[in-house]
Design brief:
The chain starts with 7 loop residues before the first helix and ends in a 15-residue tail after the last strand. A hairpin with a 5-residue loop joins strand 2 and strand 3. The strands form 3 sheets. Strands 4-3-2-1-15-14-11-8-7-6-5 form an 11-stranded antiparallel β-sheet. By secondary structure, the protein is mostly beta strands. It is built from 4 helices and 15 strands.
């Protein structure tokens, strides 16, 4: 298996300079500084064949480093990852926490023009299709809570906790995985695993529509971090930009749908009972303005804190022996 014998952050800085990252946000950005760079390739960027850098530079909306590592994980690792996903599933309905949502809309100059910040009581529930859905109650300034306004704050992205099922037995047939190597992040011995979902893009609510890099603990396979973008985003954006740029021009404004791209980042920094739980999620929306350039249009940060855990116990009695 490949081993990362170099600094994670040092190599990634060079990778992003050669890719097409989003423009830097202004010092007055009310949301947050730009995302930290994604995990590095399994090989230093300097080993790339000559000319490959220029090809990668042209990838529209691509912010994840590319890799030549072949797809595929050995069955033992897949089984261990699936077992850990099952542990996360057993905890999905056993906690509640506080969610703080900060969002901003950006103008064409990269300046945040609108900002909102809201706090919620947050819990996961199951819908009729046995999928996990988010349930929220708004926390008012008085400290009292009130039901959140319908699905207003459900923007179509997977809930942060949904990423813990990335390697579940159900999801594995829909993904291709590859081992991008191991290294140290702080005191954690970690492994980077690339993933690519097979479902076509239909809004992004399903994790199987995404590709990216997952950082897991190399010993117990708990999830530590996820960086993702829609599968095949560069090709989709290029096609959408071509359609938009040739659409009808009315008063110097194109009438076609704007070519929008997305990226997501999730950190799981809270530890409990041998598992990790989400502490922050960010997702960005950006727009292609040329075949090479993009501008940030929306950003949202969600912080999760004050976790409270509870257990659900059932008592079974055998017919004929139950007390009156």
């Amino acid at each position: 298996m490949p081993r990362l014998a170099f600094s994670w952050l040092g190599v990634v800085g060079a990778v992003l300079l050669l890719s097409n990252p989003l423009p830097a946000q202004s010092p007055n950005d009310p949301v947050m500084p730009p995302l930290p760079p994604p995990p590095p390739r399994s090989e230093p960027e300097s080993r790339d064949p000559e000319g490959e850098k220029e090809e990668r530079k042209g990838q529209l909306g691509q912010f994840l480093p590319e890799s030549d590592v072949p797809w595929g994980l050995d069955q033992k690792m897949l089984d261990s990852l699936a077992d850990r996903a099952l542990d996360y599933q057993n905890y999905a309905l056993r906690f509640t926490c506080l969610e703080r949502v900060r969002s901003a809309i950006y103008d064409d100059n990269g300046e945040a023009s609108k900002e909102k910040s809201t706090r919620y009581e947050y819990i996961l529930a199951r819908d009729e299709g046995l999928r996990y859905v988010e349930s929220r109650e708004t926390i008012k300034s008085s400290g009292k809570t009130a039901p959140a306004e319908g699905g207003k704050h459900d923007v179509g992205f997977p809930p942060a906790y949904e990423w813990t099922f990335l390697f579940s037995g159900f999801n594995q047939p829909y993904f291709a995985y590859r081992d991008l190597g191991e290294g140290f992040e702080g005191f954690d011995w970690v492994r980077a695993i690339g993933f690519k979902g097979s479902l076509p893009w239909s809004g992004g609510k399903d994790v199987r529509e995404w590709e990216g890099i997952a950082i897991v603990n190399a010993v117990d396979f708990t999830l530590l971090e996820v960086r993702a973008q829609p599968s095949g985003q560069s090709e989709r954006l290029e096609a959408e930009f071509k359609r938009w740029s040739t659409s009808f021009n009315l008063l110097n404004m194109r009438t076609g749908p704007k070519p929008l791209g997305y990226r997501s980042w999730v950190a799981l920094g809270m530890r409990r009972d041998g598992l990790t739980f989400p502490t922050q999620m960010r997702y960005d929306t950006f727009r292609a303005v040329s075949m090479k350039d993009i501008i940030l249009t929306e950003a949202s940060i969600r912080d999760y804190e004050n976790y409270r855990f509870y257990g659900v116990r059932t008592k079974e009695t055998i017919e004929g022996t139950a007390p009156p």
